## 1
Amino acid sequence: MSQDRKKAVVLLSGGLDSATALAVARRDGFACHALTIAYGQRHAVEVAAACRVAKALGAVEHRVLNLDLRVFGGSALTADLPVPRDRAEEEMSAGIPITYVPARNTIFLSLALGWAEVLESFDVYIGVNIIDFSGYPDCRPEFVTAFERLANLATKAGVEGKGTFRIHAPLVQLSKVEIIRLGQSLGVDFGLTHSCYDPTPDGAACGHCDACKLRRVGFEAAGVPDPTRYAAGA
């Protein structure tokens, strides 16, 4: 029963990576408490995807927290800025793109850490990945390690020695192909997930943003059918 298992908080965006991270946490034997942040992102359809994924992968609890980062903007995902389209792989890896949301993973991990402390859990999972992605600074192993140190310094549970917080980033060094194959082996239904940064009003993937291109190439290279519903002509 779930009350007999150790608890973990899993950040769940509704995308391919976070769904696989949830499946890994379940494989690792944790009772998974999924946390989704509705942060005013233009691709808010991913919140509905997160709800589908949490249910399908047996999260014991799923909470959606509203935190509107549009008040700051600074990103094509939270402000009226164009999402880059049809960029070559070299261009995607050349610098930090406008789809970077300032301090997003720092904010998200802080919220997950707060919930974990209330749950008396010392394990937080996040699906960050530095390979085959756009070079976001808060997806790097160095960031995960630094936040883990902070978690143990900044919490009552950590200071009192009740346990040691661990930030699990099981996908951080995996390619998109490896993530897809891992997720498939763990029973992830990728048809429930959403990755597109600039979906159509009915939720179809644009097929042209960085996230769509990386997802599509990943499925092709993995030899796995791509279940994504793309917009007409994409």
## 2
Amino acid sequence: MLTTRVIPSLLLRGNGLVKTIKFKTPIYVGDPINAVKIFNEKEVDELILLDILATVEKKKPRIPLISAIAGECFMPLCYGGGIQSLDDIRQILGIGVEKVSINTYAVENPDFIKSAAETFGSQSIVVAIDVRQISPGGYEVFTYGGKRSTKLDPVRVAIEMAEMGAGEIFLNSIDRDGTMQGYDIGLIKKVAEAVSIPVIASGGAGKLSDFDEAVRRGGAVAVAAGSLFVFHGKHRAVLINYPSTQELQKMLQ
């Protein structure tokens, strides 16, 4: 039985899905409901849906749209974007979403994660940490969709979030996002070794063997990918795909 979760990460911009490169140049890749239906057929482990404009534009979660997407989703769904209150979380979980991902607001208000975990349970609370490499071996957390520097070290942020009760860390390399050049194993390893909660590696997956690298060498418990599951071939034609259970078992055993 495969124990590593392999999670498509979907970026919501407006009413459509996009894919970015290093958090820039969003390319439209399709309708979210259609994508979810395809992933249902492919028996995906879990989905992450991130509204990439919500926090930047200071908008609240769009409950009707999230509800419509969740209603089509046969697998566990994690939603992130614009969450700033316990009521936001209550509404999102109330429409059938299993987990929420909190990024900027978690960094700015760590106590909010403690309140959220105490209210809804750690299993429902994921903290997303977006990271840039600023020097050889040196990393920094960025917020507001990668636009604002915090001067904070991702390891220290991850430790604090774990102490506050977060159930998982969704660790995203901005530098690797959309490049399909492989995960930043050094970054994953630093964070995974510092916390006892699961780390989901994200940013850079370009082939199935990258998943194995993130787990075996980096210490990630789960892996997320975007481009690998929506593009096909050297011309990056949009084709939503997901490896078979047999392919994943062969790679991740």
